[in-house]
Write the structure tokens for this entry.
Amino acid sequence: MAGQDQRPEKYEQNPSHLAKEFPSRTYQGRPLIDFVTNDWRTDSRYQEGIYTSDESESLYRREEDDYWVHPRWKNMISYKRVPRRVQRYLLIYVALLIATWVSWTWFIQPDWEKNKELESQLNAKPTSVFGSNMRPEFSDMTQVKTLDSSLLPSEHQLMQRLVVVGDVHGCKEELQNLLEKVSFHSATDHLILTGDMIDKGPDSPGVVDLARELSASCVRGNHEDRMLLALNDMRVHHASLPGPQEDPGRTVDTLDEESFSHGDYKARALARQFTDKQIRWLQQCPVILRVGEIGGMGEVVVVHAGLVPGVPLERQDPFQVMNMRTIDLDTRLPSDGREGTAWEKLWNHEQAKLLEKERSTVIYGHDSKRGKNILKYSKGLDSGCVNGGKLTAMVIGASKEGKAKTKIVSVKCKNQGLKR
């Protein structure tokens, strides 16, 4: 009959015929899967991925509705379906990202910003220049002395070496051990002491005798300077007034009685340990020792504490050369305190800006708190021997190409602080 569904009887009794001829259609609005008669609905092996007729309809939506995700795909991309090895890699990557972020935020970035600020201050033009004024002359000390050039290592004197030693402070035994460790030979090696050879340790006169025996060079440190000033005051200005009648305003006591000391008794007691020959040897130690040109190091200079960059050696303040630790970047004024920028940072920064032939390398001691401090153009050798640290030497030789060969050597020290 027209207008009626003319399905043959075979389709009514066997829907599978309809499915074969009309695979893209459903029968009476129901999906063909509903007519399957095997045990797929009851057997657990077929339960994964089951979908209802409503869900199945979503598979036949129009193309513009293809964004709908079938539950089977959702199950495939779930975390449980990700291989364990991939899971481990993901956890490692996440941990590395977190560690990198923490390192940058708490450590790298603050240090980077601090260094950037310091670089800006180092490059800034100072408001005034220390050393521009005239320096008074001192008759009781030598400002600068130049080392004999025959003692310098070079391509022509490959056997010659310089052995520069940090603060000994009366530790003669450790000095002997150090010289033995570097295989010191007085015929080919030359010893240079960076000041503070005396005081605090057990055998200050013995250190001086050993240095004299080896024809060593030296520079005056703040401890030698203090002792020599006290000795000079004792010899030149000694007064016969009894202790109680001494002017209480004096800051340097010239009397021998400990009970009347105004602060320099230890220096005076130390001075009395030395003979006249030992005193004269200490007095001839300059404030600055100009070593000379050494390949790869420029002009080498030895001092006890430090130097102000840009100021000629002859115009350096001797007190600061023997005592300085920091420097003010605005005024270039050095200080023996620790508030400010370490002087060697400014020194290395300024040397790097010079032509290679104009650069200088400073070897020094004095600052045991910073310890061994080896930078490109400054070499700090005080490693706190007298307090149980180490006694350190810098051995400088030469190669056939004329470049310096350097080596840092140290020996352990006894703690002499307990005996003082």
Summary: Confidence is low (pLDDT under 50) at residues 55-68, 240-245, 251-261. The two ends are 128 Å apart (CA to CA). Residues 79 and 299 are 68 Å apart (CA to CA). The longest strand covers residues 390-398.
